Amino acid sequence: MSLLNRILPMCKAYAYMEPIIINNTIDHLKYGATGELLCQNIRNEWLYSNVTSRDESVFQFCNAQEKYNNDILSLKDPFMNAKQFCNNQLPFSFADSRSICEQSDSKGSGIEERKCFSPKKFSRLKYFAFCIPEESQQFFYHWQRQRKIWWRKFSANPGRFSLTEISTDDNGQETTEIRAEFEWGQETIETIRNVNTKMFDSLEPAEQEMFLSKIGKRKVLPHVVESETSLEKACMVFLCDGYAELPYHNDRRTVFRFHRKLAPYKITFAAPLLNAKKADELRQLSIYLGLNLKKSGVSTLIAPNIAKKSLESQFTDSDYLGIPYIAVLNESTLEDGILGLRSIETTLEVGLIAYFETF
């Protein structure tokens, strides 16, 4: 059975996503509750890397006009604002993480697995750097490395990511791709281009003048470096990358191993089968601890079936959801405050003392 055929039933059962097919084409990916959290975390990490932590000023925008063939048309107003904020001085950048785009040709590759990576409708994640002309080539090389590092940082198998050789088209535009290696072959997950001033070629001279910016006292057209991926590609990459069948006792267990920053939930609770009274007390304790974790900003799943299913069954559900840690409560936890913390990576438990005096 192929990797995708193993993953898709799990994704549907545990509310990650399912492909919606219209006219024999994957129109879009429909996300469940878990998938929405995963996508939210991916977008947040993309924004942190491309906007928040950048040295230069990066401004967010959204292309509401879906039919723009040239992105520069949708950047006119944001560009004027950026020039004002930056005193007309380069460099500065733009990031788009909310535009819903539609592929004009959605036939794509004949390989079935690749169709989920490129649905007809997708949320693009695109970055535009408006560079000082003399520094654009150096930034192009730098940005390739940074984007590859970003994918590898969140991967359970960093070695699967690689950069292609730089290709140059007839107009002198340089392009490279970041690819991920899967069992069906290499998947292009991000494209990086050194556009230079080609982006402005379709504009009238008066419109081009609007994009003139300063380097000191000199006015120039900025050189543009752009990178583009999509939320759907990123979601599929990390689902396929995180899927693993690991040895467990004398059997194997299926898990999604997400980076802790991408995991939809960071922690949940489990407890062994107990009588109704003790089970209810532990459920109340899990709610109390869970609410405190949520108030501290930790995404927490408070499971209603705690102490009502076997521990192994609760662990299995947690592993399918890719939850890095499980707080294991037991009968003595109510007396001594000691609980076990189980890791998805090692399946080992360490004892911790939980402070719940008010409980």
From TrEMBL:
InterPro entries: aa-tRNA-synth_II/BPL/LPL, Anticodon-bd, Anticodon-bd_dom_sf, Gly-tRNA_synthase/POLG2. This is Anticodon-binding domain-containing protein. Residues 279-347 form the Anticodon-binding domain. PANTHER family: DNA POLYMERASE SUBUNIT GAMMA-2, MITOCHONDRIAL, GLYCYL-TRNA SYNTHETASE/DNA POLYMERASE SUBUNIT GAMMA-2. GO terms for cellular component: mitochondrion. Pfam families: HGTP_anticodon. Gene3D superfamilies: Anticodon-binding domain (3.40.50.800), Bira Bifunctional Protein, Domain 2 (3.30.930.10). One of its GO terms (biological process) is mitochondrial DNA replication.
